[in-house]
């Protein structure tokens, strides 16, 4: 298995995004193609003061990441709505079956 090495700049950027109140850590991790546990560990290390340096200042890169995170959030909401609709549909089918008996 290949082990990735990420710069402190990359880690700080990821932590900064994951600490945003409207963004879930899992969405940031998915957008950055890293494991959510890894990002959670980086957040803990950041709180403990183990990172030095600054987050990325490349506006284009940050915008692309934010766009990917927003897309994953949208997908998560759509999947939740689909699960709810399927559950409601199943309940309606069962109610119809009971009425036909």
3D architecture notes:
The chain has helices at residues 8-18, 25-32, 36-47, 59-100. The protein has one domain. It has four helices and no strands. The protein has 101 residues and is mainly α. The N and C termini lie far apart (58 Å). Helix 2 crosses helix 4 (59-100).
Secondary structure category: mainly alpha
Q: Compute the separation of the termini in Å.
A: 58 Å
Largest β sheet strand count, sense and barrel closure: none
| Uncertain ranges | none
How do the helices and strands follow one another from N- to C-terminus?
A: HHHH
**Strand tally, please?**
0
Number of helices: 4
Helix-residue proportion? over 70%
Give a quick rundown of the structure.
This protein has 101 residues and is mainly α.
Topology of this structure?
Elements: H1 8-18, H2 25-32, H3 36-47, H4 59-100
Keywords:
101 residues; mainly alpha; 4 helices; elongated
